[in-house]
Design brief:
single chain; 113 residues; mainly beta; 7-stranded mixed β-sheet
Length: 113
Amino acid sequence: VQLVESGGGLVQAGGSLRLSCAASGSTFTIMGWYRQAPGKQRELVATISGGRGSTNYAESVKGRFTISRDNAGNTMYLQMNSVKPEDTAVYYCNARKLLGNYWGQGTQVTVSS
């Protein structure tokens, strides 16, 4: 199983960024994005399930971020709009199945004010 994130970088407050996570090696029942800011615990950003693609968002990103998956379910995206300095963190891709929980290496997102 391999999860590879891409799309992080530096963006100004109010701008947009799209993260991608390419998954290989298995089929997953749920995928999600988490983030960890310096000195803070890793927190949930958003999740998306297989099948119907039900989504769940942290309150702090509702209305600004959108999680999605491609039809094959192998690539997951996080569209980040109206970003804020407090969105600055390392963003991690997560994928779960019945007997496994996997993480990507993380991608840095920095929002300048």
